[in-house]
Amino acid sequence: MKNEKNRVAFMSILAAVFLTGFKLIVGVFTGSLGILSEALHSALDMVAAAITYFSVRISDKPADSDHQFGHGKVENLSAFIETILLLVTCIWIIYEAISRLISGDFHIEVSIWSYVVVVSSMIIDITRSRILKRTALKYKSQALEADALHFSTDIWSSAVVLVGLIFANFGIFYADSIAALAVAVIIITVSYRLGKKSVDVLLDRVPENTFQQIENAVKNIKEITHYHNIKVRSSGADTFVEINIHVAPNLNIREAHEISNRVEIEILKVIERGDIHVHIEPEE
Fold this sequence. Notes:
Blueprint: H1 2-30, H2 33-59, H3 73-103, H4 112-139, H5 142-169, H6 174-202, H7 210-218, E1 226-235, E2 238-247, H8 253-270, E3 274-282
Parallel strand pairs: 2-3
Antiparallel strand pairs: 1-2
Helix pairs in contact: 1-2, 1-4, 2-3, 2-5, 2-6, 3-5, 3-6, 4-5, 5-6, 7-8
């Protein structure tokens, strides 16, 4: 598991390094703000991919005396940092695009390399986002999911830049700046989704639908007369659950323990990587 996550994260760094250099060279050569904005976006993707790589390595470390719930939240913190980096990208893109639209200063030389870099970027981004998404779902890694969002965002933003280049090829140069603004809007949208999800985990918000899934798993165990105080928190790929159950007062310790084990088994059917703590009380 650990080797696969590390390998996928490292390949994302290599992809981001290649795309950043390629876009920067072509963007400077052509003067295209759309391509330059994409180069900056890829540069931040490169930083984000590096953060993801190191966070994935740290998050898989076992719990210790200083981190008794493990190191999983390093991934959530990494995803939040990536959100900030994406928003920084937007500030520069919006400023530069509006400045060009106001001044009317458009210096763009559309060449075959403009199209090559954008199309190549889209192909690489599609490949990497699919691999990252598949691995993120497999191991419930929010850091890899954030990286997948970065690359999937690049696909859409590259498509917008491609449209801007096509218009610029027909002399409609302001379309490049409008394309850059469209890229910024896409990035802001993705940043909000990613940032909200990261902050929710960092603030120990109950994962969506998890509470209801736990209740559905427990309420069908007929030996439980009552349950309460369900508490859920996430840390990386792990989910920690606490629950109090009431059983008949005449049960012995072994019987009560067997019911507790059934509760854990049923909850783990709906929570793939769970740490379940069941407190048993006699029904008054």
